[in-house]
Write a structure and sequence with these properties.
Distance between the termini: 25 Å
Bound molecules: flavin mononucleotide, iron/sulfur cluster
Number of strands: 10
Strand content: 15-25%
CATH topology of the largest domain: Rossmann fold
Shape: globular
CATH class of the largest domain: Alpha Beta
Structural class: alpha/beta
Oligomer: single chain
Number of domains: 2
Length: 254
Amino acid sequence: MIYVFSGTGNSLHAAKVIAARTADFIIPIAEARDHAGKHPAFGPAAGETIGFVFPIHAWGMPRFVSDFIRDLKVDGKPAYVFAVSTCGAEEGDTPAKVEKLLRKKGLSLDGAFSVAMPDNYVIGMDTKEPALRDRVLADAEPRIAEIADRIARREKGARMPLRGDGAPFKSNFIHPLFSRFAIRTAPFRVTDACIECGLCARICPVHTIKLDPLPRWGKACTQCLGCINRCPVQAIEYGKGTPGRRRYVHPDLR
Ligand SMILES: Cc1cc2nc3c(=O)[nH]c(=O)nc-3n(C[C@H](O)[C@H](O)[C@H](O)COP(=O)(O)O)c2cc1C
Ligand code: SF4
Ligand code: SF4
């Protein structure tokens, strides 16, 4: 079972490549959370592989992901447990954080991998221009294929990190501050370009966007940036920085 969280499709793409190689099922973490305890098909069966694929948010796991791993009920000993993060450049010490969560459940992290893909943090900076974006996407493919092979071989102790400089400081200090103070929905707004298609509300993993008939944001948010990047007419802005910036969506989702 491969649990995936993805705002703009990078992690979903990586999960699909891995699932195709290992013949595992993919379950979006948003759906698994919505059905937690109500439907056994969303939980892992005893003795199978369990994987988590997710984007890096401020050198750590989105809280949406860490809460899910913490709450996931696992019966018996899985055959193999892995985590794959997708990031713009650096994951910090995220594997150590995943390992800590799993240890509390009596599980070990058999494989931990990270792959650089185009950055989707449009509220902080412009996304890559198309030629560079496509080069980064192409460069990611062999690494994703190698990750999929190592997972398929159930290689114990496999590590392919992208730590970056100052990883402990970034993951232990900046990440918690970011999660606590930097995630706000108040700066979201919709422009006259909105065609009321409802996509932003449908894809929001925390169901915080309501159509009235234009989108309105509630307080909950995990800052996946799916809404602002995936709006088909670029009608969503955030604060003063996003007007005129390119949006990013993985080609699988375009
Ligand atoms: C809120 C937020 C914070 C991010 N922080 C980091 C970071 O610390 N390091 C990094 O390399 N990329 C960072 N990124 C970029 C994403 O990790 C990267 O684009 C990822 O592949 C997106 O995956 P997705 O399309 O599955 O959501 C951040 C993106 C967002 C939305
Ligand atoms: S995705 Fe864009 S166009 Fe569609 S409802 Fe949301 S803001 Fe409007
Ligand atoms: S409001 Fe937008 S950024 Fe926040 S969780 Fe929903 S889709 Fe993601």
